[in-house]
Design a protein that fits this description.
With 152 residues, the chain is mostly beta strands. It has two helices and ten strands; from the N terminus they run βββββααβββββ.
Length: 152
């Protein structure tokens, strides 16, 4: 299983507008870093009911149905995100298959990435931990399967 680290940040722009009647609804933004080979992805966590309204493709609709069939619903404190691949050289973001679910009450994060172009088709269930020091450019939570303090 590949090394993974997910960092979630409070979205300071949540609730602001970006057009007439259009609001930014992502509660958290985040980064997903994979090792061997290194890849980077971006996530925007929405409340469940806002997230299901962002599903656009048949695959995304199937993912929503799968989550709803598993018992996840808008009454739970659940945040969900689609996945974007991030190319740090060109600074481009590309939507890829998969999704992520963050449950702060149970301190769990699930992420599934299906990115054929970049050779990633895996899923992880990770423990999520709240960070002790919050602030600008500091994550509010981290979910990982590696020791971030160790040098690699």
């Amino acid at each position: 299983m590949r090394d993974i680290a997910v960092r979630g940040f409070v979205n300071d722009k949540c609730g602001t507008t970006f057009g007439k009647g259009l609001f930014r609804r992502a509660i958290f933004n985040g980064s997903v870093e994979l090792g061997s080979p290194k890849e980077k992805y971006l996530v925007d966590y929405f409340e469940f009911n806002d997230w299901i309204n962002t599903a656009k493709t048949d695959v995304q609709m199937a993912d929503v149905k799968k989550l709803m069939d598993s018992g996840v619903n808008g009454d739970d404190e659940i945040y969900c995100s689609w996945i974007q691949h991030y190319n740090p050289i060109s600074k481009t973001k590309t939507k890829v298959g998969g999704f992520s679910v963050y449950a702060p009450n149970t301190q769990e994060l699930y992420i599934a990435i299906d990115d054929v172009l970049n050779g990633t088709s895996e899923d992880w269930t990770l423990p999520a931990r709240l960070c002790k020091t919050a602030g600008a450019n500091k994550p509010i939570f981290v979910a990982t399967n590696i020791d971030l303090g160790a040098s690699h």
